[in-house]
């Protein structure tokens, strides 16, 4: 039964995650944190971080991680197949249709109108992860629960990206090292 739930959950994620991995994050969160409680919000945040650091799409990495956690290797295979199956089918169908009808204005208008929805999904995922990092997974946002160290690391990362044009992987490694060093000192 759990394998069927894994397959169905990640089939839905694969079917409705238009716009790539970042757009899939709210869908993944809804399935694995809110609906099934397979992960806590902190584990979900860790999952996204790990998925960013490993090769491959976020949704597939997430499916594999959650599948292994819930049902071992079989769970990882079932969740991953559920995640990629809709994309495989849709890409084949859409590629055929797009090649045949790509010059039709209606098709171009539909594709153009999907962009704001994708941006909104990415923003929602970013806000969710940001609030979890700054205020914890309980959803209570207050000065008392604010993790100022994480805010300072975040601001430092933004400054490095904008002023030094550093790569994302370098910034992620530096942020991790910074947090470990601060934790070792005992500031947190």
What is the H/E order?
Answer: HHHHHHH
The coarse silhouette is: globular
Domain module tally: 2
Helical proportion, percent range = over 70%
**Uncertain segments:** none
Which range does the strand content fall in? under 5%
Structural class: mainly alpha
Number of beta strands: 0
Radius of gyration: 19 Å
Let me know the average pLDDT. 88
Strand and helix layout:
Elements: H1 2-16, H2 21-35, H3 41-53, H4 58-101, H5 105-135, H6 148-164, H7 168-185
Helix pairs in contact: 1-2, 1-4, 2-4, 2-5, 3-4, 6-7
What would you note in describing this structure?
This protein has two domains: 2-138, no CATH class; 147-188. The protein has helices spanning 2-16, 21-35, 41-53, 58-101, 105-135, 148-164, 168-185. It contains seven helices and no strands. The mean pLDDT is 88. The longest helix has 44 residues, at 58-101. The protein has 188 residues and is mainly α.
Output the keywords.
7 helices, 188 residues, 0% strand, mainly alpha
Summarize the structure.
Helix content is 81%, strand content 0%. The chain is mainly α and 188 residues long.
């Amino acid at each position: 039964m759990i394998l069927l739930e894994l397959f169905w959950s990640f089939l839905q994620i694969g079917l409705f995650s238009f716009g790539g991995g970042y757009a899939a994050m709210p869908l993944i969160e809804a399935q694995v944190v809110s609906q099934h409680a397979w992960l806590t919000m902190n584990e979900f945040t860790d999952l996204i971080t790990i998925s960013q650091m490993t090769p491959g799409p976020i949704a597939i990495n997430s499916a594999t991680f959650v599948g292994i956690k819930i049902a071992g290797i079989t769970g990882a295979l079932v969740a991953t197949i559920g995640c990629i199956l809709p994309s495989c089918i849709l890409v084949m169908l859409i590629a055929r249709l797009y090649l045949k009808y790509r010059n039709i204005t209606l098709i171009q208008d539909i594709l153009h109108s999907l962009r704001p929805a994708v941006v909104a999904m990415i923003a929602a995922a970013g806000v969710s992860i940001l609030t979890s990092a700054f205020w914890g997974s309980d959803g209570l946002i207050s000065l008392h629960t604010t993790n100022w160290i994480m805010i300072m690391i975040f601001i430092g990362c933004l400054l490095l990206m904008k002023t030094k044009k550093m790569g994302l992987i370098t910034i992620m490694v530096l942020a991790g090292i910074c947090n470990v060093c601060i934790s070792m000192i005992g500031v947190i």
